[in-house]
Amino acid sequence: MRFAIIMKDGAPEKWPTAVLKQGMRRLGLSEIGEEYLRPCDILITWTPWAGSRRERAMLAHQARKGRVLVGENGYFSPDGARRWTLGINGTNGRGQHLPADGDRQRRDALGLPLSPWSGGGDYVLVLGQRGVKTNTPAISHGPEWPDQIVGDIARLAPDVPIRFRPHPGRCEAFPRTQEARERVRVTDPREPLADALAGARLAVGYCTTALVEAAWRGVPCVYTARQAIVAPVADSDLTHALAYVPRRPDRESWADRIASWQWTDDELASGEPMRALIA
Question: Which residues are CB-neighbours of 188 under 8 A, at least 6 positions away?
Answer without folding.
Answer: none
